[in-house]
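User: I'm putting together a teaching handout on how multi-component assemblies are represented. Below are the sequence lines for each component of a complex, exactly as they appear in our records. Could you produce the 3D structure of the whole assembly as structure tokens, so the students can see both representations side by side? Please keep the chain order the same as the input.
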Amino acid sequence: MRYSRLASTGLAATLLFAGSLLAQQQPREIAFESAGDFLKLPADIHFGEVAGVATTSTGNLWVYTRSGGPNATIGASRTYINGGARLFEFDRSGKLLREIGSGPTGRPYSFLFAQGVRVDPQNNFWVVDRASRMVVKFDPSGRVLMTLGRRPEAIGEVGSSAGSGVFGRGGGPPGSGVPGDNFNQPTDVAWDAAGNIFVADAYTNARVAKFDKTGRFAKSWGQTGAEPGQFNTPHSIAVDGQGNVYVADMGNKRIQVFDNNGTFKTQFTNVGAPRAICISPGPQQFLYSSNSNPTEDPFLNGEIYKMQLDGTVVGKFGRAGKQFKEFGMVNAIDCRDPNTLYVAELMNWRVQKLTLRN
Amino acid sequence: MKTRRFSLVTAALALSSAAATTLFAQIPLERTPPDKLTPQQLALRPKAIDAPDIKYEVVRDFMKLPPNVYLGEGIGIARNSKGHIFVNSCAQQTKTFEFDEKGNYVREIGKELYGHVFCHGVRVDAQDNIWVIDEGSNSIIKFNPEGRVTMVLGRRDEWPMGGMVAPLAALDPAPPYIFNRPTDVGFDAAGNIFVADGYVNSRIAKYDKYGKFIKQVGTRGSGPGQFTLLHAIAVDAKGDVYGGSRSDRRIVVFDNDLNYKTVYDHVGAPWSLCISPGPHQYLYTANSNPDNQNTPLHEVSGQVFKMELDGKVVGKFGVPGKEQGQFSTVHGLDCSVPNEVLTSELTQWRMQKFILHPTAEQGGK
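Assistant: Of course. Below is the structure of the complete assembly, with chains in the same order as your input.
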């Protein structure tokens, strides 16, 4: 009797201690609002899963979405695919301005399965497409300035220069981090102040590729694994003002930080499985990261963290779900204004504009 | 080849001068007489085949498409409170169309929609939201009455990057939020959502109005609470849930918490179900003729049964065939207006509108 009372007192003390630690570690909740359905679409245009959202310096928005299709043209030896992704520009009020590729030649060759869109400091927009395995740079008027990677000539082709889920021209099985300028299901792009280009080549190749500003391949790091410098789906990428590279290593539930040449510096493991990250501009930069829900459970996790660049969590907000102020697999965050975020949601087929209140 | 004697009476009746442009045709009730049926066909007849015949008319040429618009196979059909009709169809690509109450084409809903892969039905809820069931994208998509997407249940698989992938096998229990060729959706008065996840999985899943999973019931089989191709669902005003188990020809009934209640096995294969509104609700079920006329089943199927909610059959109507007023593999039923039935049909690319005469318990003859 005496023994058990002692034991239970000790247990209670331990629980109390653990509880207070938990309370300390629990980030504070950031109050926020959602602008609801603020993007106005004509009756015959619908978002599907929205993969990317990015603002320009003038406040316009690019939205890259998965759409109906793609359609296959089945030939005897090759199956050709077209369609499946659409890119729209809106003004700051949510009015639709234009669609890229709405003319007679149709959408650009790389628009197959939307994965991301980002805007660089010169207001060029960069479109990342997972199925065409391409990153394409457009100038603000919409002309193509640079193409990175090459679209496979046909679906399922073996030995193409762009890789197709089987060995690419660079050789090596999936996850081996094949270096080179061709991608295998890339997911995101970022730049440093000098204009160097960093591509997250996530789903099949599991590496980061660096190019100089002219598109010349510079180096590559990472392969499948859980060690520092290795990746399990490096899904999103951002670069800070010093040129450090932040990689959302989603499958390993961590954000890895590298210097500008890919040397591992540190990692943050307290923000869940990061699917989308963003670093705000200006003298005091913040890092935002979404612990997005998995496909299997639209009500699990979903919170977005606001962090200092050293990994200190400032706070968190939101949760998974289907209503406004809830998130359905956030796939992209735009944080040009650190208190006005735009999030693109795959599973809720929408963009939300969020205003952070504290 | 057996000659059917569906001598369609085409004498048009102008009901009144105000409706002089609406032409009705009376449909004969004769089918192949029982003494001409084979033993196999007799065995395939629904047990309730001797239910009274309901008198009915078809509204001739009801569906009116503009030039160069084509429906394709009529998959699902539903009507909103304003009488507008929604039909989804395997046109060249899966599409959902809106028609007005007179059957005039209005517009397409969800043009180039990410979730439009291979549709399986459309339903309208009490608030006039439009719900599309798509078995190709494994999604249930909710549109508001204006036709904008407001909620998605399930998720279309991300593109198989290496080419085609084999469909997933059935999972038991199925994951709460992942469908595998869902077939239909229904709603109770509280807005809870009931999904028939029926071609590969064999379950009814219940979600709250925000899409949060509550519970599910069903495995593959023909026992109580089981399904063999759960193809249709309907919910009555009390919240009871009716699941149409097509391949073993049963309607399986559950209470609102998905506890098994009973089974109706006397009305053939429930291809589609609907429940009429009002204080006295009826359950309609389509024992549709298959998409092959050269089968024993064809001659003894192709009728719609009208039932009390407790399973008592009030009457039946319809014969299989391709002419107007006949049924050509009914895949969708709407009965949101009393004594009116809308059908969408697979093997004749159409919707049809039928006017039923009141049955005996309604004061009819």
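A couple of points students might notice: Chain A touches chain B at residues 37, 41, 43-49, 65-70, 79, 84, 112-113, 130-131, 155-156, 164-166, 185, 203-204, 295-299, 321-323, 328, 347-349 (CB under 8 Å). Chain A has one helix and 28 strands.
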